[in-house]
Each structure stands twice: as structure tokens, then as C-alpha cells.
């Protein structure tokens, strides 16, 4: 009985704090994406601009944790299959945040464009499945700066 | 060629659906799954468990060292007497050939007795001390033996294991301690129907051995009195696996009337050593 109450409390807390954090994060992501729009990033491996440029490695790194609510919904979803929607937003936020941080780095260096952008995603919560999932997203690319 | 990153519309990689809606749908879904599996297990599981031979149940129980938890060796006289009664009751209840009951004594003040896997019946000193005569003792043993005869331990154990699997699947637990948490050698919880069936078998044993039911209902009076003394209200019927003591006492009258069995008759006294100590030598 106590276990059930504790679980319910954790889920409720996870929902309220988790969704508040998510809303706030998305708001900030969208705002910063607009600001940094002037600095294009692309996945192509070969620089598409010609001229004399310096190449600098830039990267953005994010570690983000799931909340109890997301984990609970996902574990129920595991029984039935389908989109793990609660994790989709989590990963979407992490990827966009990583790109933004990479862009911020490039902007500070005075770069014009970032090419050959790649992502690495890893789970750093360990092998225990009952543990809360914590993911790390690392975005990196080559920034070009006029010499 | 122009190089730019246009603003990508939201809601492609993610969903705009409210997460609580998803939770609700999933909760209703899993509840339906649990209910339907419970239904199948309750009605199909009992049938399936009956197909498990007793020898397999015995093998499972042999994995556990029963001797370590009981005080049989310290009360040989008592065990000899109890085992004799148990064998007589087994005959009265027409136990299948392959089911053999082994009775054990636990030197503890707990007022309880229980049956578990492999035909092991455990009786605590606390309960033995409260018994007024052999007829009541036979009712108690008959009740526990009936649990084994009707395969209640393995039935409730399978349900227990099943529910631990289910909960660990939902809560994401590893479920490595399934057998442990189901309590293989602990006193298992039996349903109210199981208790009623066993009560009936206990009456059959009484009738078979003494030709009357006198002394049987006494067992439940002991429990009733104990509850009154401990000042705890009898739990509401819904939450208690044992039927109300009052109801069980009445059940003796109902069955006696129904079958034309006598409710009165001579009571057989307990052997002398019941007056003294069950244990030959007390350990300090």
C-alpha cells in the first residue's frame, strides 16, 4: 500500500515538475533558435563555401534526465508498443539544445557556417533498467571562420 | 546556392497530444489486460495446477531445508502423536495415494498453523496449548491437510508468482526474486473459498474418525476469543481471507444438519504430555 502511494506521489511530482521544465525549455529553445538562425549548420561533409577559411571544431553537449512520469508512461507503453512519445520530446529537446550550444560556441568564435555536423547520443544511466534514464547528446561539427 | 536553416515547424518529431491522455489510455489498457489475465488465471489456472503432479510440488519443496526451521527433534513424542493423527485424517479424507502429509512442530508462542508446498503442515506451540481436546486438534489438522489435498498452496503460489511477474513487468523491476517474494515456505494466503472448502473437509475427517462433529467449532471459538482479547476488531469480511469465525461456527451446524451428522458426542482427551511441556528439554 505504501509503495503504491509513494509511486503515485512520484508520478504526480514527475508530471508537474517535468512538464513545467519541458515547457520552459521548449520556449527557450525556440527563442534561441530564432536568434541563432543567421548561423547555418549543415550535415554535408565537404565545405560548400569557397575562399580562405579557418576550420575550428565546435561542439555542444547536453545531459538530460527523464522524470518519473515519463518513465512510468514509457514502461506502460512497453506492454503495448508504439511511439514512446514522452521520450520523443526528451530527445528532441536534448538534440536541439546540443545544436544550440554548438552554435553559441561557433558564434563566439566569429564563425560564418558549421558543416559536417554529427550527433552522438548515449544513455548514461547504466545497465539497470529500473533506474531513471539519463541521456547525453553531443553535437559536433566544423566551423568555418574567414581567415 | 543559398545556405540557411529555415525555422522548422514544431510537432513533427514530437507530438502535441497531451501526455496525460496517453497515460489514461495506457492505464485503462493495462487494467483491462490485468483483469482479463486474472480472469484466465483464476478459472484456467486452477484447472492447470491440478494437472501438476504432487511429486513435482514435493521436488520444489525439497529445495528448501524444512528441518532448519522446525523443532521436530526436540518434541519426538508430540511429533509421533501428531503424525499418527495426520495419517488417520489422511485416510478419512481419502487423500490420493501420492500425497503424503508431514507434520512439523514449531516451538513458538504464535497462535497459528499452516500448510505449505509438498504436504508440509506446521503447527505452532501457541496454538497447541490452547486446544481443549483431540477433536479440536483433528479439526485443525484436517483443515490444513485439506489445503494440501485440494492443492491450495501451489494454487496460491502460482497466483503469487504470476502477480509478481505482472507487477515487475509494469513497474520495470527485474523480478529476480520471484520465488522469494512469493514466500515458498512462509504461510501462504488462501482465498475465502479455499478456507471454506477446507473447513468442510475438516468436518469430513471429524465424522470419519469420531462419528460426530463435537469439538470442531471449538477451534474457531479459540480464534474468536483471541481476537476479542487482543482488542482488535475482526477485520471487515472483504479484507479477510478467513471467513468470519462466527460464520464458520455456524457452518458446522449447517453441514451437520445437511448431512444428518451428530453435533454431540464424546470428546477424546489429549495425551498427558499436552499438560506439561511439548519440548523435552528447554534451551536457555
Verbal overview:
The complex is a heterodimer of chains A (147) and B (284). Chain A has 147 residues and is of the alpha+beta class. Chain A has a single domain (2-146), classed as Hypothetical protein apc22750. Chain B (Translation Initiation Factor IF3). Chain A is built from three helices and three strands. Chain A has helices at 2-35, 68-80, 85-108; strands spanning 53-65, 113-123, 134-146. In chain A, strands 1-3-2 form a three-stranded antiparallel sheet. The model of chain A has no long low-confidence stretch (mean pLDDT 90). With 284 residues, chain B is mostly helical. Chain B has a domain at 61-152 and 190-271: Metalloproteases ("zincins"), catalytic domain (Zincin-like). Chain A binds chain B through residues 7, 15, 19, 30, 33-34, 37, 40-42, 48-49, 69-73, 75-77, 79-80, 83, 85-86, 88-89, 92, 113, 128-130, and chain B through 1, 3-5, 7, 10, 13-15, 17, 19-20, 22-23, 26-27, 29-30, 33, 169-174.
Amino acid at each position: 500500500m505504501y509503495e503504491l502511494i509513494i509511486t503515485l506521489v512520484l508520478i504526480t511530482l514527475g508530471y508537474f515538475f517535468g512538464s513545467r521544465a519541458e515547457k520552459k525549455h521548449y520556449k527557450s529553445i525556440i527563442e534561441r533558435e530564432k536568434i541563432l538562425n543567421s548561423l547555418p549548420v549543415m550535415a554535408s561533409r565537404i565545405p560548400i563555401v569557397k575562399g580562405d577559411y579557418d576550420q575550428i571544431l565546435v561542439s555542444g553537449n547536453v545531459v538530460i534526465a527523464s522524470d518519473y512520469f515519463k518513465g512510468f508512461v514509457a514502461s506502460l507503453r512497453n506492454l503495448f508498443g508504439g511511439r514512446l512519445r514522452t521520450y520523443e520530446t526528451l530527445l528532441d529537446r536534448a538534440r536541439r539544445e546540443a545544436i544550440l550550444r554548438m552554435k553559441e560556441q561557433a558564434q563566439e568564435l566569429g564563425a560564418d557556417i558549421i558543416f559536417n555536423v554529427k550527433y552522438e547520443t548515449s544513455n548514461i544511466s547504466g545497465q539497470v533498467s529500473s533506474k531513471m534514464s539519463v541521456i547525453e547528446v553531443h553535437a559536433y561539427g566544423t566551423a568555418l571562420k574567414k581567415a | 546556392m543559398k545556405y540557411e536553416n529555415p525555422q522548422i515547424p514544431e510537432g513533427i518529431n514530437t507530438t502535441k497530444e497531451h501526455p496525460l491522455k496517453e497515460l489514461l489510455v495506457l492505464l485503462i489498457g493495462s487494467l483491462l489486460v490485468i483483469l482479463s489475465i486474472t480472469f484466465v488465471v483464476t478459472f484456467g489456472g486452477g484447472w492447470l495446477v491440478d494437472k501438476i503432479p504432487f511429486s513435482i510440488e514435493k521436488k520444489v519443496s525439497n529445495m528448501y531445508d524444512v528441518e532448519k526451521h522446525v523443532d521436530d527433534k526436540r518434541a519426538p513424542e508430540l511429533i509421533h502423536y501428531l503424525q499418527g493423527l495426520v495419517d488417520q485424517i489422511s485416510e478419512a479424507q481419502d487423500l490420493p495415494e501420492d500425497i503424503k502429509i508431514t507434520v512439523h512442530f514449531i516451538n513458538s508462542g504464535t497462535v497459528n498453523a499452516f500448510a505449505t508446498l509438498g504436504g508440509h503442515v506446521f503447527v505452532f506451540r501457541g496454538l497447541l496449548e490452547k486446544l481443549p481436546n483431540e477433536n479440536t486438534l483433528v479439526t485443525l489438522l484436517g483443515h490444513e491437510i485439506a489445503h494440501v489435498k485440494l492443492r491450495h498452496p501451489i494454487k496460491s503460489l502460482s497466483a503469487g508468482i504470476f502477480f509478481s511477474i505482472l507487477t515487475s513487468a509494469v513497474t520495470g523491476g527485474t523480478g529476480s526474486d520471484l520465488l522469494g517474494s512469493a514466500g515458498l515456505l512462509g504461510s501462504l494466503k488462501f482465498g475465502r473459498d479455499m478456507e471454506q472448502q477446507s473447513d468442510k473437509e475438516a468436518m469430513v475427517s471429524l465424522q470419519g474418525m469420531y462419528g460426530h462433529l463435537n469439538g470442531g467449532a471449538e477451534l474457531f471459538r479459540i480464534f474468536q476469543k483471541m481476537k476479542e482479547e487482543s482488542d482488535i476488531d475482526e477485520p471487515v469480511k472483504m479484507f479477510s481471507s478467513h471467513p468470519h469465525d462466527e460464520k464458520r461456527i455456524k457452518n458446522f451446524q449447517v453441514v451437520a444438519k445437511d448431512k444428518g451428522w451428530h453435533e454431540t458426542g464424546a470428546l477424546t482427551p489429549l495425551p498427558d504430555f499436552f499438560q506439561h511441556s511439548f519440548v523435552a528439554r528447554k534451551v536457555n
